[in-house]
């Protein structure tokens, strides 16, 4: 199983079995908290399982937009895990919960600036080991505590790393610029604690988290051609061109 650069390796003593989607287990998030997390519980059973985390936020981007389940698939593919069966249903539910929390919080803190362009940065799950293959079918569950558990793997393989969003280099413990009471670590803990049998957790961040990317505005002008004749009274005008590395809209007045 390929758990990737910032990942735990197989070794948690947990159990899983193919079963139907369990009810409940979704926690109510802090009102208007920054970022977002979603979670779903597992059902337990009698097949071996392992817990893994995949975290990505670097110069090439995150796992993908929070509007697409393919972003969760990308994280699982990187870990060598196949998403299928009830796992698809649970992964979509966790993603939808995380995206809704992220967008609602962003709209509350930054009214009039859209939905926040929320991106998937982390996926944690408990796939079953079936015939030597790692399959997330929604049934796996692992203890939050203990060696190889959700917190241990996060603290060992994710928290020590440094990540990059735009020009901002950060760790998961750093408070968000637009919500200092929150962090990626805090989102993780809220969602792992949401169930006694956590099975999948998805974490998304908005475009200003953990901090807004640096923004530079440049202005250039191009003078219009003039006749050059003495006494010419025609209006003269310049063309003003703006360019930026950000996404904000600029209003420019000129005379």
TrEMBL record:
Residues 219-255 are annotated as: Disordered. Residues 238-255 have a biased composition (Polar residues). Residues 1-28 form the signal peptide. This is Adhesin. It comes from the Bacteria. It comes from Bifidobacterium longum. Keywords: Signal.
């Amino acid at each position: 199983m390929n758990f990737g650069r910032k990942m735990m390796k197989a070794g948690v003593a947990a159990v899983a079995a193919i079963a139907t989607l369990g009810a409940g287990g979704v926690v109510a998030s802090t009102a208007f908290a920054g970022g977002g997390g979603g979670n779903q519980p597992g059902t337990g059973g009698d097949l071996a399982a392992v817990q893994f985390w995949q975290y990505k936020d670097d110069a090439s981007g995150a796992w993908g937009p929070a509007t697409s389940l393919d972003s969760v698939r990308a994280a699982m593919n990187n870990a060598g895990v196949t998403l299928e069966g009830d796992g698809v249903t649970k992964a979509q539910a966790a993603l939808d919960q995380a995206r809704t929390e992220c967008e609602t919080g962003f709209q509350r803190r930054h009214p009039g600036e859209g939905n926040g362009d929320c991106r998937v940065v982390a996926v944690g799950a408990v796939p079953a080991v079936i015939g030597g293959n790692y399959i997330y079918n929604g049934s796996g569950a692992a203890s939050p505590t203990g060696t190889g558990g959700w917190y241990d793997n996060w603290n060992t393989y994710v928290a020590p790393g440094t990540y990059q969003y735009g020009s901002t280099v950060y760790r998961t413990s750093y408070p968000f610029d637009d919500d200092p009471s929150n962090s990626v670590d805090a989102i993780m803990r809220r969602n792992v604690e949401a169930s006694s049998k956590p099975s999948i957790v998805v974490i998304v961040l908005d475009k200003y988290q953990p901090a807004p990317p640096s923004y530079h505005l440049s202005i250039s002008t191009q003078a219009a051609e003039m006749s050059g004749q003495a006494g010419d009274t025609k209006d003269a005008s310049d063309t003003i061109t703006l360019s930026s590395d950000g996404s904000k809209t600029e209003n420019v007045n000129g005379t």
